[in-house]
Every structure is written in structure tokens, then in C-alpha cells.
Amino acid sequence: SMLLYMPEQGTQELKKIAHAVNHLSSLLAEQERWRQILMEDLGHELRTPLSIVGSQLEALVDGVFDLEPERLRTMLDDISRLTRLVQDMEKILQADGAIFELLQERMDLVPLLKQVLYLLQPIFEDKDIQVTLTTPKKPCPVLIDVDKMIQVFVNLLSNAAKFSEPKGKVNVCIELGVVGETISIHIQDNGIGIPQNEIDKIFERFYRVDRSRSRDTGGSGLGLTIAKRLVEAHKGTISVRSQEGSGSTFSVTLPLART
Ligand code: ADP
């Protein structure tokens, strides 16, 4: 180690710099760790569908079975899943970078959510799902990276549609915190819900409740992980309450922008 000469009047300044450097290096270390785990998980996720497709193709080449359309369709399904994984992977890497570069601007949450709901209208209409939006009378200013928050809400809202039966109901409610420092967005569905013992796990990477059932909903289990990281990058929180069979409510809480 080195012994540095520190002039007395500069000590405070140096301490501040040292603190900032330490903080930055622990952020980098955390990101590095996260990347490593991500790569391990990804390898694990890719291996299974790849080896299934591989062995099916081998069997075809060896003439073990005939080229039935059904078999080809299964392989195509596996390949689509691989493609989605890679796309989600790109998204999660972007979200990762977001922690260091949020392009924040001040805006009101109400028009933003109206815009997102408009964007998603087709997926709700597809299942004949009724959507309501409840907003406070007061302004709802937040400091956000618009594209990234849109990604969060698109994610939560499309999940609400995905895991609901046709003719379901989705209620979006914007609520100002009692103390006046936060604002929450609750997205409530009356869909299939999440079993109590799985609730803690759904924000984990690649986690999906009952994989065989979720398979046809076309996700890869990264959506909520990305949403959580993006919300936390905004110094917010995301949580869920759910009852299996009667529905789920996802809540995002963000700091209110000062007026
Ligand atoms: P994906 O939707 O791609 O499967 P997510 O990370 O968005 O991945 O969600 C992870 C899992 O959490 C889903 O597979 C599903 O089992 C569960 N889930 C998420 N949102 C809901 C919801 N609104 N209702 C019921 N289950 C949900």
C-alpha cells in the first residue's frame, strides 16, 4: 500500500473523492457480478432447447423417424423460444446500462399512461378485456426516462392481459402517496393469479410460474426482471399482491418530482 501526503485543508475534498471512487467501484463490481450470473443462467436456458432440437435433427438424419409436420412444429417452437431469449437478452443488457444513463425528463404520469393504454388497446380488445384508468385530481409530476418507464408499463399491462381470461377486467389506478413524496401506479387484473409460494420468485430471471402452462403465452420470464431493474434505477419500487385464481395487482411506486 501507499502512504499519501494529505495537506490538512484538502482532506475533506479527498475524502469526498475517495468516497465517490469507492461507490463507483462497488457499483461496477455489482454489475460485473450480475453479468456473470446472467451469462450462467443464459447458458443454462439455451442448452435445453438447443440439445432437444439437436437430437431431433440427428434422429431425422439417421432416419429414426419420418419428417412429420408435428415434429417440425415442435422444433420451430423451440427455435422461436431461442430467438425470444436472445431478443430479451439484448433488452436486459440495455436495461443494465440504464442504471448509468437514464435520460430523465419531467412529465405527468397521467398522459403517459393514457398513451401506453392506447398503444396496448389491440391486445386488450383481442381478449375482450375491459380496462379502466383512475387518476388523482392533482398533477402527477415525475422525473423519468420516458422510453424506459413505457417499457415497464407495457410489460406489466401485457402480463395483465396475458394472464387473464377473455372478458377479464384490468384496472389501472394512479395514487398519490399520503405524505406527498411518492406516487403509485397499481395495475390490477382478475386473471389466473400467482400461487403464494411463487410470488417471491417471479422477479427472478427466467422465472415463470408453471412453465408448461406459460409456454403458449410466449414469454421468457425476463419481463419482470427488466421492469424491476428499471424501476429501481428510478429510485422506485415494484411489488405484487396476488391470490391464485382471483387476480394480481402489481404496484410501481416512484418519487414525486418536486414542484
Ligand atoms: P413472461 O411474461 O415472459 O413469462 P415475466 O417476467 O413478465 O415473464 O413474468 C414472470 C412470470 O410471472 C410469468 O411467467 C407468470 O407466471 C407470472 N406473472 C407475471 N404477471 C402476472 C399476472 N399479471 N398474473 C399472473 N401471473 C403473472
Automatic annotation (TrEMBL):
Keyword ATP-binding: yes
Topology versus the membrane: Multi-pass membrane protein
HAMP domain: residues covered: 1-33
Major localisation: membrane
Catalytic activity reported: ATP + protein L-histidine = ADP + protein N-phospho-L-histidine
Enzyme class: transferase
GO molecular function: kinase activity
Entry superkingdom: Bacteria
Protein keywords: ATP-binding, Cell membrane, Kinase, Membrane, Nucleotide-binding, Phosphoprotein, Transferase, Transmembrane, Transmembrane helix, Two-component regulatory system
Subcellular location: Cell membrane
E.C. number(s) listed in UniProt: 2.7.13.3
The Histidine kinase domain, residue ranges: 41-258
Protein name: histidine kinase
Organism: Cohnella soli
